[in-house]
Amino acid sequence: MENAGGQPGGRVRPVExxxxxxxxxxxxxxxxxxxxxxxxxxxxxELDSGVLFLTGEPGTGRRTxxxxxxxxxxxxxxxxxxxxxDVNLGTxxxxxxxxxxxxxxxxxxRHPLKRGLISALRRLLGEAKARMVIVLPNDPGxxxxxTRDLHVRPIVCTPPPARAVFxxxxxxxxxxxxxxxDMLAALPPGALDELLSPGLHPAQVAELVAMxxxxxxxxxxxxxxxxxxxxxxxxxxEVPDLLKRLRDDSDGLAFLLxxxxxxxxxxxxxxxxxxxxxxxxxxxxxxxxxxxxEHTGGGGGPGTSxxxxxxxxxxxxxxxxxxxxxxxxxxxxRRDAKELHTGGGFPYAVEPVRFTRHxxxxxxxxxxxxxxxxxxxxxxxxxxxxxxxxxxLAWPVGRVMGRAASWGxxxxxLVHIRKLAESERRTSRTxxxxxxxxxxxxxxxxxxxxxxxxxxxxxxxxxxxxxxxAYTCETGFGASRPDLALSLLHGAYRGMEGxxxxxxxxxRRALGFLFASGSQDTVFRQLxxxxxxxxxDAGLALGTLPLLLHEDAPWFAAxxxxxxxxxxxxxxxxxxxxxxKELFDPTSRALVSWCRSAAWSEDQRRAVDVVxxxxxxxxxxxxxxxxxxxxxxxxKALAGRNIAGAAxxxxxxxxPRQTDSAHSYGRTP
Length: 669
Description:
Residues 289-313 are annotated as: Disordered. By secondary structure, the protein is mostly helical. It has 5 domains: 20-156, Rossmann fold (3-Layer(aba) Sandwich), CATH 3.40.50; 162-222, no CATH class; 239-284 and 323-372; 386-517, no CATH class; 550-656, no CATH class. Helices cover 54% and strands 6% of the residues. Strand 8 (339-343) and strand 9 form a beta hairpin. The longest helix is centred in the last third of the chain and has 17 residues, at 535-551.
């Protein structure tokens, strides 16, 4: 597990939908560089029956294959939908007439499948002219049961040979054949066959291709030594040997854990966090205690009984105790060359710590979490005390805590996250939100994550839990489940008064995130509905509107130019927000920014004309203030200025407004 400066970097990957429409970007990415396995034609034929079961090991490309099967079988339709893994197929119904394919990724055995149920499911899909692919968990017992009870034979997703996957992905990543030939020719003879060892999963092949494509982009020859280094995976059985070496070395153990959690961050952060963990542990990382009960790393510090002499041992306050290079060497890590990062308004240099073997951090953390039960409490306490000014650390820590949920398992898989979720410290709650989003990527845990979030969203007593719900909806969890996220956010909101303001702002930000993540229609439709209810619902809808107006002006422009109901709702909500004393300023700023951006977009200019003309028909207090701001703006060429000026003249001269009976707000076709 590597962290790049605390935030995910590089090209933004599409959100994997777990519930609702699957984005065209994810469908196209699944088809890019897809190597068709031998079983693919048979699977297409089996899909004619309506329902296809896929199984296989993680990393073998099951989801990618399922998307390609649905896309191909539907005549390359982009209208595919995801169905969450905890669905009850006995009560499920096709949700949209135009959807041609449904993907259930990781179906859980919570609701037993019967032969009649599958027949009914095929009938429903046939009537909807759609097909469904069900990806089963990698559970041989479950597969045997389905084969025995339902008389279906799930297709095992065996990936194509590594070389076939490599060739297909490389052709997609490096389009120029000459560049591909030159790159492969630069490798020593037989090197590629060595790298593409039998059994290599498509995900691992993709990593190799990405490295080679990066070399082509940088116009450098790929280094076999560098490729070997980055592709060497630390086997789980090697971890006990590493821990055995560090058993009597509390410094080394603390540094190992810090390097695992904060791999890829600056060595100073790793060192500081290791020191903080050592202090917090209060001897729990020392294998031997002195006769007086003090840990061997003590030096007569607090807690030493009066008159007792501690056993001689290393002094934890000794400033020359361990050098950085010594600690790096003992845990098998290195300090990389300086990198320039930006944040907080200024650039700064970091020297990231990374393990010399790929995947070592996750292997170590997974092993110690499973094998040493008491360690989980120490790690949770450590991560719950991340300094509030170190918010950049929330991402790597949250990712580790989310993975830990799958390492632990059982009915208490999320108990360590609950402690962070109800903390008074915002940093801890942000960590919990990241962890919940990560945990929900595991089909087994997704159901519990949703269950807990629903409970927490209605917690009247704990606003901290409700704020964690909002933070979680502002992650990939919410983006892939927009309908559920909207329901959770609605439950968590209690207004903006007093101590509730922090929760309310978090809910608004999460709604803005969902809107910006591709769910504009869903979010705005819900806000429009809430606005008609009055009370807290209307307050939430109107309070979120200025954020959305800033977030995606082109979307609003398109709706206004469609001359439909959504455009009418936009104008209705804008008018109400302008009439609100607290919301006028942000709403006015958003509309003025539309006017400014209209200089570069003809559609935006036309949309500005539409909204201002509609508002001019009813010159209430908020509209009047907006038009005065536009008319007095320093930019004399500001779009819409003529409409605002004319409306103000008519208002001053008592000219009655004109109403267009064909359009609610006087817009023209």
